[in-house]
Fold this protein.
Amino acid sequence: MSLSPAAQRVLRAVAATLVPDAPADLGDRVAAKVATLPRPADRAELDVLLRLLDTRAVNLMLSGIPTPFTRMTAAQRERCLRGWATSRLPPRRKAFQALKRLTTVTHYTTPGVAKTVGYPGPLSPPPHTPKPIRPTLVTADTTLSCDVVVVGSGAGGGVVAGELTAAGKDVIVLEKGGYRNEADFTHQEGDALATMYDAGGLLATRDLGLVVLQGSTLGGGTVINYTTSLATPDAVRGEWARVHGLPHFETAEYTRALAAVAARLGVNTDHARPSASRRAAARCPRLLSGRFLRLLRHGVPPRREAIDLDHVSAGCRRLRRADRRRL
Ligand SMILES: Cc1cc2nc3c(=O)[nH]c(=O)nc-3n(C[C@H](O)[C@H](O)[C@H](O)COP(=O)(O)OP(=O)(O)OC[C@H]3O[C@@H](n4cnc5c(N)ncnc54)[C@H](O)[C@@H]3O)c2cc1C
């Protein structure tokens, strides 16, 4: 469902207020994203709230500005939106968060714009890498037989499927995302969000308080995660064991399993150099105050080829080329 023309007009004004130096078509591109939101109810709610924002009486009552949003001055629009951001009414705060995220994600993932805020941009065009896996695309009712069905091919499902196959079981892995490899890693965040993240990176809790950034592609989150590799802390293992009744997590066997996974992934501290995006964030005193932890990351010994941390969340070509055991 697309936004109504009235809501789209307001959205253009909202986008121009949130990102004042954005190109004129930003509002239309945000409207196109709204049309792809996973929950129809969210789209309908945004349409209503945008139209309310252009109502004189509502603005007078809620913001003290007796003017439709599209006719306000830039300063009035900003004051009005700030009021929505901090409103005591949850639907207004929710609408503000939705509009702010959609607008800034759309703008700052536009090729070229990302560079202006210190992001490095693509290394080079993607390589022509063949795709060794031949997934079966199921488009109609189909009968397949196997010993085990694993739903999801991510960090959990992938390992389970691999271990079961090694143990001689006939396994089918169901994956709702598409199959992407190095040939698809354009290093454009917009492309990556659209093709390798659940709901294009826009999945959120119902109240929009939390964005659920989650990989959705063959390999799940392992294809786009930052490679930070920390062993489950003892306190967490204890909590899983005692609070959730899962004593296995406190056993020596689990400790050995963690060590086996770390060894297989080649976890090391050789790739701890912060990416350009993190360095850019560190220059903002309100964010990190320039502090970085030296993190364990998984790489591939003995070559220890540098992981491409600037682009890893859009798919790291080097990591994938170096380790064919990953999907
Ligand atoms: C950008 C990003 C960076 C991250 N960085 C790190 C990091 O540095 N270190 C770290 O430890 N963790 C990191 N994570 C988290 C880590 O990737 C996840 O915790 C991990 O992948 C979760 O494994 P999983 O098997 O539960 O799910 P996932 O790996 O997310 O896999 C689930 C898969 O199941 C598929 N699926 C879901 N529902 C269905 C269905 N009904 N039918 C068919 N398929 C379905 C999805 O499409 C997806 O591919 C990161 C995550 C993201 C998104």
